[in-house]
Write a structure and sequence with these properties.
Length: 247
């Protein structure tokens, strides 16, 4: 399992914002959110809360709403303002089947919570290999790391950031194994990022090739390649798991 600090994620977002003008605004927004998440994570470490529950995030929720009201894009800022007026409990939102417009707020707080809660734990081998062995969530991205004469494929959890090894020729959505139905697409402007698609279930996931760019951070570089998402959607594919900003 590989961990990237929140500060490294934020700095990578700022770096990529300078490189990819089309995604600069969302990357700068992500960098500020990442630094907020770092503060939540560090507080949880200091508190040493043991068997935590989402209720321990109640104090962070108003600060998150204030931040998003100030720096968020239009729809998110408006939703944050609405939540500030309504003052719901974060635990009620987190434990319910949240509406799509609440998912962002829930994920921003649950990500550092789950990273802290599961840090140092041994994941269970039970369940589907297509979902995180630690928390059961879908993968956000795949990662290729050099090993020997080739590269091993790993999946990165969209919630707790844990990584687990995964076969190269296997769809993480439906388990398709026929390589003919699992094409890979690339674009010259994103040399180290690939679209791995499945023609069986019509889903896709981005793969970050660290043998081509060792400085990449999967959750950030995935976010910086929105043009690949647009191409995939136009081609009729659906993303396996949307990222933190809903793309």
């Amino acid at each position: 399992m590989i961990w990237f600090s929140w500060e490294k994620r934020a700095r990578r977002g700022e770096q990529l914002a300078a490189e990819y003008a089309a995604c600069a605004e969302v990357l700068r927004f992500y960098a500020q959110v990442s630094r907020f998440q770092e503060g939540v994570y560090e507080r949880l470490k200091r508190d040493g809360t043991g068997a935590m529950q989402p209720e321990c995030l109640e104090a962070d929720f108003p600060y998150l709403l204030g931040l998003i009201r100030r720096i968020g894009p239009g729809a998110l800022a408006a939703k944050a303002e609405e939540l500030e007026r309504e003052r719901p409990k974060f635990s009620d939102i987190a434990l319910a089947d949240s509406a799509a417009d609440l998912t962002f707020f829930v994920r921003v707080l649950l990500q550092p919570y789950m990273e802290h809660r599961l840090n140092g734990t041994t994941p269970s081998a039970e369940g589907s290999p297509c979902t995180c062995p630690a928390c059961g969530e879908k993968p956000q991205a795949a990662v290729l790391r050099g090993e020997g004469d080739g590269a091993k494929r790993w999946l990165v959890c969209s919630l707790c950031s844990r990584e687990w090894e995964f076969r190269r020729v296997l769809c993480p959505a439906c388990g398709e194994e026929d390589h003919v139905r699992l094409p890979v697409y690339t674009a010259a402007e994103f040399e180290h990022v690939r679209l791995e698609v499945c023609d069986g279930c019509q889903t896709y996931i981005k793969s970050i090739d660290l043998t081509k760019n060792g400085l990449a951070i999967p959750c950030v570089d995935e976010l910086a390649t929105v043009p690949l998402d647009l191409w995939a959607e136009e081609a009729g594919y659906t993303k396996l798991q949307r990222n933190i900003v809903g793309l």
